[in-house]
Design a protein that fits this description.
Structural class: mainly alpha
Distance between the termini: 56 Å
Order of helices and strands: HHHH
Strand content: under 5%
Largest sheet: none
Protein name: ATP synthase subunit I
Number of helices: 4
Number of strands: 0
Radius of gyration: 21 Å
Shape: flat
Main location: membrane
Number of domains: 1
Subcellular location: Cell membrane
Keywords: Cell membrane, Membrane, Transmembrane, Transmembrane helix
GO cellular component, one term: plasma membrane
Length: about 120
């Protein structure tokens, strides 16, 4: 919400308030995608034998529907509607960074701990 508000404010200051509104809509579509991903992963992994193909099909269908919605908005309300595409793209980038950074930190701390343990083991 804050990012959408800042985007709309910034666009309004540049004289393109509707680009900011569509940017916020794109962020909302990205959030919907993230919620649907979480729901589908929970549902699929709760099964006794989860299938990768079920997850892949679910992801493809979800991304296709949301992409068509975003592109339709961008086309119908062009050029301001392109803000939707930018909002969706920014949300996905933020989502990827917010999930990969903790994993990278954990891997580094594990490697550093392993390196120290290995060094101590060599000394004894």
């Amino acid at each position: 919400m804050v990012l959408a508000g800042l985007g709309t404010l910034g666009a309004a200051l540049l004289g393109h308030v509707m680009v900011g509104v569509f940017f916020g809509i794109g962020l909302g579509l990205g959030l919907i995608n993230a919620v649907l991903v979480r729901r589908s992963v929970t549902k699929i992994t709760a099964k006794e034998h989860p299938l990768k193909s079920a997850m892949a099909l679910n992801s493809a269908a979800r991304l296709m529907v949301l992409s068509v919605i975003g592109l339709a908005i961008a086309f119908v309300f062009r050029p301001q509607g392109l803000g939707v595409v930018f909002g969706m793209a920014l949300f996905q980038m933020l989502l990827v960074f917010s999930t990969t950074l903790p994993v990278a930190r954990k891997l580094r701390s594990g490697a550093a701990t392993q390196g120290r343990d290995g060094a101590e083991g060599d000394a004894s």
